[in-house]
């Protein structure tokens, strides 16, 4: 299963590679959202064709030389560091199926790495990728799950 899941996750993000990040921001707690693609106004919020939401996970943002921030940092530091992703292209993605760790490589050698909490429940989403076809892919410790999107990413999450 691990090689199959690795290929599935890496294939999922192929249409996002080469696109510039925008709207990267820290949300509630340690949530991070990043937009890619064309802007669309939905319920008074702009979202991209692809909307990545780091949700229930440990994550770090690293430059070539040091860790810039992580999911345990103070909110102000998180937002300041996450702002660095705006306007950078997503150049690559790697997935370690054994650790369920996803690493996003951005221009300037910035690396955003996330993985489920050590005590994650099987249905907790590490990240969610909202896609132009109105589907959302969620990574849990059990693998990828796909479902239809509500009117907005926020409504999809709260409607569960």
Structure commentary:
With 160 residues, the protein is α+β, with helices and mostly antiparallel strands. The chain has one domain. The chain has three helices and eleven strands. It has a six-stranded antiparallel beta sheet. A hairpin with a 3-residue loop joins β7 (101-106) and β8 (110-116). The two termini are 27 Å apart.
Overall body shape: globular
Report strand %.
over 45%
Span between termini: 27 Å
Structural class of the helices, strands and pairings? Answer: alpha+beta
Q: Total helix count?
A: 3
Compute the number of structural domains.
Answer: 1
| Mean pLDDT across all amino acids | 92
Q: Work out the radius of gyration.
A: 15 Å
Low-confidence regions: none
Across the major sheet, the strand order is 1-2-3-9-10-11
Q: Which series of helices and strands comes N to C?
A: HEEEEEHEEEEEEH
Largest sheet: 6 strands, antiparallel
What proportion of the residues is helical, as a percent range?
Answer: 10-25%
Number of strands: 11
Topology summary:
Layout: H1 2-12, E1 21-26, E2 32-42, E3 45-54, E4 57-62, E5 67-70, H2 75-82, E6 90-96, E7 101-106, E8 110-116, E9 127-130, E10 135-140, E11 143-148, H3 153-158
Antiparallel strand pairs: 1-2, 2-3, 3-9, 4-5, 4-8, 6-7, 7-8, 9-10, 10-11
Question: Keywords for this structure?
Answer:
single chain, 5-stranded antiparallel sheet, alpha+beta, 160 residues, 3 helices
